[in-house]
DNA sequence: GTTTTTTGACTGACTGGTCAGTATTATGAC
DNA sequence: GTCATAATACTGACCAGTCAGTCAAAAAAC
């Protein structure tokens, strides 16, 4: 009884939390941070405004939770897939595959990631910054093994890792900038891989 | 008299306009769009709030004018320098040199460019989008001549051009993300050039 | 004196956040 | 099992602060 009861509550609570984050991603994704109102998020989540403040202490906190939770998932999955590969080349490819799949499958997250990311970096020490750094550092680590083994030519691995992540973001910026309309069959993932790999691979 | 008067007025008007844009860049750069207030911009520009509305019809219009005027300058100068070069390789190098110099020399514009750019792309058909497209298309044009002459391997030139521009932006994102602290002597411009050039150059 | 430009106090819509009250679920006594 | 009590979760009307935009009056230009 006790256990079942608690489970029921906890389950409900967790469900609510997920629901709120989902709603937040939708509203933030559609309207952007500034134009998204807490009332809208509450309505979308199907809860009262006050309830939101039981789960998160501010609009800002909701935003961070919504963005970072997905970012974290994406990064974790990319890391897993990368670890499962043997060569640096395949690790990079796997990382790209995961990130592209993630961003393609979740329009709202994509919008937040592409359009709000820059603005959020303004906050020195913000949660996203640490995550971004962590993600970049893992990729840099992988690249370093390639440099050490001679698979890649010497390069600033951290800068290269960041460049790669920015390239991924850049490919999706195209969608919002309406580019390129010319070639709908264009494969951004392959393009980024080739550009990056040729750019850093040993000659 | 009339002429002199008008000239004086016009001169004042133009001076005011430049002053307002300069102030706007400072305030938007420091606080971000959402946290920048029209009152702050007016104070910074040394005019009354109402005066701003004689020059621009809204906060949004001020923002656009402030961002696009600099972006336009940067693009125009890059274009000039590129045209002055003979080879595609040197054109690309020149374009990078101009953009890096611009962003390094103007902290406020850099902040707006890096942190607000994404958010602004949200507005389909916004002024920046057209500018961005135009800038990318010019670079793509240059790349195309390289492809045609065999200097570059076949590549989606528009995507490559955008990737290049995103790489530039990415190098400056590092500053805000605090990366990389490891190597202060790191030359972002050279890095981007090599990464890009190796990535798209003929094999 | 008339016209043009500038001013800055004012307005009112908007929204993040609160909290007193209500509803739901868990606990315990019998 | 059932009823009373406690604990927890939820609600939404409300408030206080903010800020884009206005306009009547003042200043400046002519």
Characterization of the model:
The structure is a homodimer of 203-residue chains. Chain A is an all-alpha fold and 203 residues long. Chain A has two domains: 1-56, Arc Repressor Mutant, subunit A (Orthogonal Bundle); 65-200, Tetracycline Repressor, domain 2. Chain A contains nine helices and no strands. Chain A has helices at 2-35, 38-45, 49-55, 59-83, 88-105, 107-121, 127-149, 157-177, 188-200. Chain A is elongated and about 60 Å long. Chain A starts with a helix and ends with a helix. Chains A and B meet through helix 1, helix 6, helix 7, helix 8 and helix 9 of A and helix 1, helix 6, helix 7, helix 8 and helix 9 of B. Chain A binds a DNA duplex (30 and 30 nucleotides) through helix 1, helix 2 and helix 3.
Topology of this structure?
The structure is a homodimer.
Chain A lengths: L1 H34 L2 H8 L3 H7 L3 H25 L4 H18 L1 H15 L5 H23 L7 H21 L10 H13 L3
Helix pairs in contact in A: 1-2, 1-4, 1-6, 4-5, 4-7, 5-7, 5-9, 6-8, 7-8, 8-9
Chain A binds a DNA duplex (30 and 30 nucleotides) through helix 1, helix 2 and helix 3.
């Amino acid at each position: 009884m006790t256990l079942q009861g608690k489970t029921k509550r906890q389950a409900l609570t967790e469900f609510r939390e997920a629901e709120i984050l989902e709603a937040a991603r939708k509203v933030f994704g559609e309207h952007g941070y500034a134009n998204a109102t807490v009332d809208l998020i509450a309505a979308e989540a199907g809860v009262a405004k006050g309830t939101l403040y039981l789960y998160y202490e501010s609009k800002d906190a909701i935003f961070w939770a919504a963005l970072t939770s997905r970012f974290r998932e994406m990064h974790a999955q990319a890391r897993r897939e990368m670890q499962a590969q043997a060569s640096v080349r395949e690790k990079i490819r796997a990382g790209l595959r995961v990130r592209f799949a993630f961003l393609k499958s979740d329009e709202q997250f994509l919008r937040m990631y592409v359009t709000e990311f820059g603005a959020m970096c303004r906050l020195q020490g913000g949660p996203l910054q640490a995550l971004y750094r962590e993600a970049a550092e893992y990729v840099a680590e992988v690249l370093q093994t390639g440099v050490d083994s001679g698979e890649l030519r010497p390069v600033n691995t951290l800068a290269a890792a960041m460049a790669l992540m920015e390239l991924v973001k850049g490919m999706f910026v195209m969608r919002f900038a309406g580019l390129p309309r010319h070639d709908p069959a264009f494969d951004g993932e392959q393009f980024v891989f080739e550009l990056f790999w040729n750019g850093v691979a040993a000659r």
